[in-house]
Write a structure and sequence with these properties.
Oligomer: single chain
CATH topology of the largest domain: Dihydrodipicolinate Reductase, domain 2
Distance between the termini: 44 Å
Low-confidence stretches: none
Order of helices and strands: EHEHEHEHEHEHEEHEEEEEEEEEHHE
Shape: globular
Radius of gyration: 20 Å
Strand content: 25-35%
CATH architecture of the largest domain: 2-Layer Sandwich
CATH superfamily of the largest domain: Dihydrodipicolinate Reductase, domain 2
Number of domains: 2
Number of strands: 18
Length: about 375
Amino acid sequence: MIRVGIAGLSASGGWAARSHLAAIRGSSDFRIEGVSASTSDSARRSAEMYGIPRGFDSIDEMAAADEIDLVVVAVRVPHHVDLVGRVIRAGTSVLCEWPLAPTEAEAGALAELARASGVRAFVGLQGRSDPSVRYIGDLVRSGAIGIVLSTSIVASGMSWGLATNDRSTYLRHRHNGATMLSIPFGHTIDVVQQCLSEIRSLSALEAVRTDQVTNRDDGSMLVATAPDQLVVQGELDGGAVLSVHYRGGRSAANNFSWQIDGTAGSLLVEGPTGHLQHGDVTIRGALDGSDALSDLTVPASFDLAPGFARADPAHAVANAYARLHVDLVTGSASVPGFDDAVRLHRLLSTIETSAESGTRLTIGC
């Protein structure tokens, strides 16, 4: 039994309550024992609301407590570096939401701190654990569509449209590190590389097309600096061609379409949002030389958390927790760690550099 403390479980709801809390309570391998917040009063209110044994005065107290084996950091990105660093210095295993940090350099520093401290450190790239995603990767690796020739994605970032609200205004400021590039695109491109292969080279374009955004909660106008249009074209290891277009807001036409074409067939993955990490997708395929698409059902063996509906945002997270338990107990590494996070941050930095310079770049150079 892994005993968990959560930083960022607000009494007003939010992502931690919808996903982490639900996933933990749906597992027989984890038990939530505590919560910390920005103030001790907030922590106690959250503990009372969710029936959690203890509200801690600080994350330091929670990370040092005997009854806590794992601290989950599920706060806004600008606070990750400080809070994760404090957990690591306490010598406690940590799971941090993605993005790991606002910048690649800060993510690298956290990874180095975890390595030097000997602390198990994981990042919330739960898309890799989703049953649909693992099934897609298995189909590709099995040769069901032959050699991959190209892949293309058109998707909606949802939150980066013409309007926002009080809870989401920080997403519209580039310096916070919680952007359409880092969140929906970052999660999705991580999955693409897991299912196909890593990106070898790329060119990118970013644009802020909606710089004046309405706050629906109070009617005020916000000046947005985070791009709401992103195009990435590139080449994967092995030569397959990649094309990705993310646009802010919601489309009346199609909010997620991912096509993979190979020498022996194709896969078409569709969903209601560009957040592939939620895993709520349908899969159709023309396999083994077929020229017609048919519905593909994910085999039950891929689902490590069958008690959750596929559309539930906790589903992919619960699958990640099931794999995390194995990692914590056996020392394996099936869930992404901080070094994986740094590599993804480096890719996103390369995309930003390409967009700023207008040049094609090779990854790692």
